[in-house]
Design brief:
The complex is a heterotrimer of chains A (about 500), B (about 120) and C (about 550). With about 500 residues, chain A is an all-alpha fold. Chain A has 20 helices and 2 strands. Chain A has one domain. Chain A is globular, with a radius of gyration of 21 Å. Chain C has a domain of about 170 residues. Chain C has a two-stranded antiparallel ribbon. Classes of the chains: A mainly alpha (about 500), B mainly alpha (about 120), C mainly alpha (about 550). Chains in contact: A-C, B-C.
Chain lengths: ~500, ~120, ~550
């Protein structure tokens, strides 16, 4: 532990304390709650910036609390954590802004924002966990804190969605616990470390390590929505739009994908995993998920469902990157962790805007939305094109590295999967853009007038900011301050210079 | 092991215990069940006394006797409590035996007809 | 304060307070709080002594065995004493207002016609509407009037609650400090008497019936145990726990004796399949009593089983016996959880959950019996015990709040509870986390250690049972919470509830979660005088 470790606690507590305080606010205290929310998100952002600066200066950060016998509760900041914590805190700020606008008049806001903050605390914790048990702790906390958000509306449908979500994630959590405990019994306390920590067991426990790897992937695959463990994700779409944004881009799905990254790179080590022969099946599962998600998305008329299946497909790019040996594929997968986040959150923000402003929930109702809401639709277009992989947007960068990595590793079939997926992406996004911009509008189901702007300013700011990020991450990918630059650093450390 | 004389008491004690236990299981009348418990208790005490007598020499071991004295006190209290409770049960149910599954059916503070009750109280 | 004083105070102060409350019923609340302070201080002092100086023994009157009574405190004892003090504190605070909340209850007309006319008058008359919001209209169950001396049932109940609660506490403290198996019998009986009477305190027909059934089970079980004690004395010529291990010669007589004692104790500890008496008794008692019964009373019998099998007769703890205990525990976990899932009443659900959670404690026997991982399982099981005590108390107190605010505890009619009692529902959720065993709760810490022990010994079947039990627990906790989150168009007007009742439940639930971080320290405490061999497993030790 060092004194700088308290910065990590600060990052964690900035949202935790906010959440706790918000629980006790009266429902009418709208202004105070909004300020607290933005304050918490802002403080977190500043602290994360301080963390980045410190790491740039060569500072190391870690803090440990006593927990289980022999296993401390440890937070740390390695390259992977910083990547994820920066992503989640930036996107959290946008989501908070968006959620405040979105839930302006709905009931139970104190409860909502309380759990909202706790949810982000858990995500930050997942990012900053330095050992497996700490990771497991925050991973389960994330499950628990997301449930009230999914069932927030309290309707029968919401409760059913919540039940399905809990069933999937808790079973996944139990499998993960088994994997963690089993690995602990073989390897002792597992601390995350580049290139893995289990090389010494490779010769003596090969079979067990393979089974444990499978258990890890099953446990984490639920949250990462790998086919066939993805059933909860479309059902969880009943949640309010900011929650969907959070689920898909910042917290839950990302936590699963990040967990898989952790296990492959920092517990097993990608080279050790390749020696064990567990990567090809994982790559296959990811490939199947990518195609399956895209095909299912094609047939959804409900916009949010289409986006949900798109997430199923896109998150597996990250898994695919992890499942292919070689620094280039690693770069592609990890950078997609960031890129998918900013693109998907933009899409969900826009979908929420359409629903809030015009009452349109279905693709078939979207004719001419571009004329009524040009800014929102512009943001939507940028993100959708990014998803398809149009240069020079963020998605193009990820797909290019993934394809190159796969070919370098000799997995040509992956390149085919990527090409098919891009075609499918185009097939389910381009019709939406066509309708939005080129068809003439009909009457909207429930139109709200927000005066000067096409919608509430908070609802508008968030997608515009994230769409700008999508462009920035693509255009300035080669600059030293891009996600790509950071991910290259991680890849160098994982594979050695 | 105790010699033959003592063994008779020992076996008698065990027999009493068994008889008491059997009655406890088959009798339903509350008073009979309380009596069955007392028979079981007497059986146990007899076993203790028999075991106390097994020590060599003329003076029996005092420890089991002290235990039996304590046991008798406990047993009297238990009987008193059981009788008082049985009396209350009879007053409340009008029956002198325990129903089989009735207790699971009517549970806590269920105020009768709660739904009318709530509808009747206007929520300001 | 020396250890001897601490030990004496632990038993005598609740006993004296109980007698005083009986004489001066009006002082009950204050005397209980005073006892909490004294017993809490003595427990902490004794814990400190045990941690620094090791096992403490106090010979009452200086006699020593076989005639005198020894009191002994090791890590296990003081852990149990601390848990008892903690739950005692919570229940004392909660009961300050629990019974008082019913004080406004005035005897109402028994005749339904009169009551109905009152109801219609209330609807017409605005003033009486306001009044009826404060003093709820309630039909008196006719049977309640039959019970004598029940003019003001709430005051009547509180008057007897405090002395009985203090007697219960005396019995528990004495039980955890006893050093011989006969003294354990006496304390076990005292505990049973206090517990049965507390169940009967609710005064309703169901509670009385459940109490009497509980008494029959309890007395029969005690007699089995007592007969076993006699046979052990006949074999070993001592009842002192510490010297039994050396003198025990495995043989038919000893096996019979132990079988008798164990049969009695598992009935009292409500281990499957002898759990039938527990759900009605725990569900029908007043909320603070249910909490005491589930958190502490059943654990008393489990504690004796631990002392018997692990400490006094380890020679008889053969693998088949250990596996049999585990098997019953596993059956309890599954049977209790499945039953909890199908209950329609909240308190019955919680009571069946107790049946299930007690099963985990019995997994300690197969896992602690071998030197490899023995201590890990020992500390895991006992941390789990503490976790369950806190979580289950929080749950029963929450159920009491819900029952009071809503007038019922039907799970399917709990819709909108998050709006009515947010603190209580939050407490229920946190306690549920610990029951499910989600990290970082203390329930997780306990399960983690048990899992480690099972994996290290290759007893993977218990691993499967534990994980399945966790998922079932998640299912029944989520079932309650899902109903609580259901949206209601027009929220009902709840009866107002004292804040201390909500916050006590929340504090315990927070403790159930937060104690996970203390598991390292608790394991250190349990190390003192632990009767199991082996070091704490730190992983990486598998062959």
């Amino acid at each position: 532990m060092n004194v700088h470790g308290f910065l990590l606690l600060g990052i964690l507590f900035s949202s935790f304390v906010t959440g706790l305080v918000i629980f006790f606010l009266k429902e009418e205290n709208h202004r105070l709650r909004t300020w607290l929310n933005l304050l918490g998100a802002g403080v977190k952002l500043i602290l994360v910036a301080a963390l980045l600066w410190g790491i740039h200066q060569g500072q190391t950060y870690s803090i440990a609390l006593e927990f289980l016998p022999g296993i401390p509760f440890t937070l740390g900041a390695d390259a992977n954590s910083v990547l994820f914590v920066t992503l989640s805190s930036v996107l959290w700020f946008c989501t908070t802004l968006y959620a405040v606008g979105y839930l302006e008049d709905s009931p139970h806001r104190s409860r909502f924002f309380g759990f909202f903050s706790l949810c982000v605390t858990a995500t930050t914790g997942i990012a900053l966990s330095a050992n497996l048990v700490t990771f497991l702790t925050f991973y389960e906390l994330l499950t628990v804190t997301t449930y009230p958000l999914i069932v927030h509306r309290g309707t029968t449908e919401a409760l059913r969605g919540g039940k399905i979500y809990l069933t999937y994630t808790l079973v996944g959590g139990a499998i993960l616990l088994l994997a963690v405990a089993w690995l602990h019994s073989l390897a002792g306390p597992v601390v995350f470390k580049e290139r893995g920590v289990i090389q010494t067991l490779l010769a003596s426990h090969r079979g067990e390590l393979q089974v444990i790897f499978l258990l890890f992937m099953l446990g984490l695959g639920v949250k990462a929505a790998i086919v066939p463990l993805h059933g909860w994700l479309p059902k969880a779409m009943v949640a309010p739009a900011p929650v969907s944004a959070l689920l898909h881009a910042v917290a839950v799905v990302k936590a699963g994908a990040f967990g898989i990254v952790r296990i492959v790179y920092d517990v097993y080590g990608v080279e050790t995993a390749a020696t064990l022969g567990v990567l090809p099946p994982l790559a296959l599962a990811a490939g199947v998920t990518i195609v399956h998600g895209s095909v299912r998305a094609l047939f959804q008329d409900e916009l949010k469902k289409r986006l949900a299946y798109s997430t199923v497909s896109q998150v597996s790019y990250i898994v695919l990157g992890a499942a292919i040996l070689g620094p280039v594929a690693t770069i592609g997968g990890l950078v997609h962790l960031v890129h998918q986040g900013i693109m998907k959150i933009t899409l969900f923000f826009c979908a929420g805007n359409y629903a809030e402003t015009l009452g349109t929930h279905r693709v078939s109702e979207m004719n001419g939305v571009g004329r009524r809401m040009p800014l929102t639709t512009a943001a939507f277009t940028v993100a959708a094109l990014g998803m398809i992989g149009v240069p020079p947007l963020a998605g193009y960068i990820s797909k290019w590295y993934l394809k190159k990595g796969a070919i370098t590793a000799g997995d040509e079939w992956v390149a085919v999967v990527l090409a098919v997926s891009s075609l499918l992406n185009a097939a389910y996004f381009l019709p939406i853009l066509y309708r939005a911009w080129l068809l003439s509008p009909k009457a909207w189901p429930h139109e709200h007038d927000f005066g000067r702007w096409e919608t509430h300013w908070m609802l508008l700011t968030a997608p515009l900011v994230t769409a700008a990020l999508v462009i920035w991450a693509g255009v300035f990918a080669e600059s030293p301050f891009s996600p790509l630059a950071w991910v290259k650093l991680i890849a160098t450390r994982e594979y050695g210079p | 092991m105790p010699d033959a004389d003592h063994r008779i008491y020992l076996l008698a004690g065990v027999a009493l215990f068994a008889i008491g236990f059997y009655s406890l299981l088959v009798q339903t009348h509350l008073l009979r069940r309380v009596m069955a418990l007392n028979v079981m208790g007497s059986g146990v005490f007899l076993v203790y006394i028999a075991l106390g007598a097994q020590t060599p020499g003329p003076i029996p071991d005092p420890v089991p006797q002290a235990m039996v004295l304590t046991g008798i006190v406990v047993s009297v209290c238990a009987t008193g409590l059981a009788l008082a409770l049985a009396d209350r049960v009879q007053a409340a149910t009008g029956r002198v035996e325990l129903g089989d599954h009735e207790d699971a059916a009517d549970l806590p503070d269920a105020s009768p007809a709660p739904s009318e009750h709530h509808k009747g109280t206007p929520s300001a | 304060m020396t250890a001897a004083w601490a030990i004496a105070l632990l038993i005598l102060s609740p006993l004296a307070a109980a007698a005083l409350v009986f004489a001066f019923p009006r002082c009950g609340r204050w005397l209980a709080l005073g006892t909490v302070a004294v017993v809490g201080g003595a427990s902490v002092q004794l814990t400190w002594k045990v941690l620094t100086d090791g096992v403490q023994i106090h010979r009452v009157g200086g006699w020593g065995p076989p005639l005198g009574i020894d009191l002994r405190a090791d890590g296990l004892s003081v852990l149990m004493l601390l848990i008892t003090a903690l739950i005692g504190l919570a229940v004392s605070l909660y009961a300050q207002r629990y019974f008082a909340a019913h004080e406004s209850e005035r005897p109402l007309p028994v005749n339904p016609d009169v009551a109905a006319s009152r109801l219609s008058a209330a609807i017409l008359d605005k003033d009486s509407v306001r009044r009826s919001a404060e003093t709820p209209l309630r039909f008196k169950s006719p049977t309640r009037e039959l019970v004598r001396g029940d003019r003001n049932p709430a005051l009547h109940r509180e008057r007897y609650f405090w002395p009985l609660f203090l007697f219960l506490w005396t019995a528990l403290n004495a039980l955890f400090l006893s050093a011989d198996i006969f003294n354990l019998y006496v304390t076990l009986e005292l505990l049973g008497f206090a517990a049965v009477t507390l169940v009967a305190l609710a005064g309703k027909r169901a509670a009385l019936t459940a109490a009497l059934r509980y008494l029959f089970v309890s007395l029969t079980a005690s007699l089995f145990y007592l007969l076993g004690v006699g046979l052990v004395y006949g074999q070993c010529a001592t009842v002192d726990l510490a010297s039994l291990a050396a003198k025990a010669q495995p043989g038919p007589a000893l096996w019979v004796a132990l079988a008798l004692m164990t049969g009695g104790l598992i009935a009292k500890a409500a281990l499957f399949p002898l759990h039938f008496w527990l759900p009605p008794a725990h569900a029908n008692a007043p909320a603070p009593v249910s909490a005491l019964l589930s958190a502490l009373v059943v654990k008393g019998s489990f504690y004796i089983l631990l002392r018997l099998w692990i400490e006094a007769f380890p020679a008889l703890m053969t693998p088949p016996v250990a596996q049999l205990f585990g098997l019953l525990g596993a059956a309890a976990i599954l049977w209790g959880s499945v039953n909890a899932l199908v209950q329609s009443r909240l308190k019955l659900l919680i009571a069946y959950s107790t049946v299930a959670q007690l099963g985990y404690l019995f997994l300690l026997f197969p896992l602690a019996a071998t030197p490899e991982g023995g201590f890990t399982a020992w500390s895991g099981g006992l941390i789990f015990l503490g976790a369950h005590a806190c979580a289950k108390t929080a749950m029963f107190l929450t159920a009491g709040n819900i029952l009071h605010a809503a007038g019922h505890d039907r799970i399917q009619d709990l819709d909108g509870m998050t709006h009515v009692l947010p603190v209580s529902v939050f407490a229920f959720g946190l306690a549920g986390m610990s029951l499910i065993g989600l990290p970082p709760s203390s329930g997780f810490a306990g399960k983690w250690l048990l899992l480690n022990a099972a994996l290290a010994q290759g007893q993977w079947w218990w691993v499967a049972v534990m994980l399945l039990g966790s998922l079932l627990a998640a299912a029944y906790v989520a079932r309650v919470l899902a109903h609580a989150f259901t949206r209601v168009e027009e929220p009902r007007k709840p009866h107002p509830i004292a804040p201390v009742m909500e916050w006590t439940a929340l504090a315990l639930a927070l403790l159930a979660v937060g104690l996970g971080f203390a598991s390292h320290g608790l394991a250190e405490l349990l190390r003192v005088g632990a009767p199991v061999a082996g070091a704490m497993l730190l992983g990486g030790a598998a062959p």
